[in-house]
């Protein structure tokens, strides 16, 4: 089994318009991270089984993987600028990694394509959903159109979204179905009946709590069945968005097929 680099979650600051992501994040002090950790404890978006020190360590390690992926994205220059343009077709099971974020507790964001024009993610903040016939606001999973997702996470000049595709289409389809039926609709329809709570917490087995990259990891771990397809769920307690392309075993490593910038 190849060595897996374990990188844990961090946090992304709210960055002023026009400011470089890396430059802004380098200004984050340990004191600021401790303060944010306490806020997340209060609102339940981080589990109390993660200590303040662990959270800070996770963030610092996550920065390294972010910088590595960002360099690869910029160097390759395979960009589609500011639009969902013709000539590229998403496939079920494609997963997206972006340096933009929707939640202060995570560096970056991840999502998975679950339909011809649908992408599933866990944004990390409360949003309108329909539960038991009533409109409520919950911090849970979300499904939206691909174009909406690309627009949402590609707003700034320094934002990018990388699209990764697994080697076996049959596994990709199973991963997409697993994610959809376990984290959105048990019947695989447009009607949501799964409402897992968003929370950064240790462990990659449960489905009652979720965060963006855990969703993608589990989709491929469980969706691949008996195949030795991704690193065993015991390899880490948490997995961050930038580590996702590296969790696949050997010959199953995914290809980056598109970058939006």
Record the SSE blueprint.
Layout: H1 21-25, H2 30-43, H3 52-76, E1 79-80, E2 95-98, E3 109-115, E4 118-121, E5 127-131, E6 134-138, E7 142-144, H4 146-152, E8 161-165, H5 169-183, E9 197-198, E10 209-210, H6 212-223, E11 255-260
Parallel strand pairs: 1-11, 9-10
Antiparallel strand pairs: 2-3, 2-8, 3-4, 4-7, 5-6, 8-11
Helix pairs in contact: 2-3, 5-6
Signal peptide: 1-23
Keywords: Signal
Structural class: alpha+beta
The gyration radius over C-alpha positions equals 17 Å
Strand percent estimate = 15-25%
Assign the CATH topology.
endopeptidase fold (from Nostoc punctiforme)
Mean pLDDT: 85
Sketch the topology as an H/E string, one letter per element: HHHEEEEEEEHEHEEHE
Question: Quick one: CATH class?
Answer: Alpha Beta
Given as residue ranges, the uncertain stretches (5+ residues, pLDDT < 50) are 1-25
Task: Please state the overall shape, judged from the principal axes of the Cα atoms.
Answer: globular
Placed side by side, the strands forming the largest sheet appear as 1-11-8-2-3-4-7
* Euclidean distance between termini CA atoms: 34 Å
Tell me the major beta sheet.
7 strands, mixed
Give the helix tally. Answer: 6
Strand tally is 11
The name of the CATH architecture is Alpha-Beta Complex
Number of domains as seen in the coordinates: 1
Helix content range: 25-40%
InterPro entries: Papain-like_cys_pep_sf (IPR038765)
Keywords: Signal
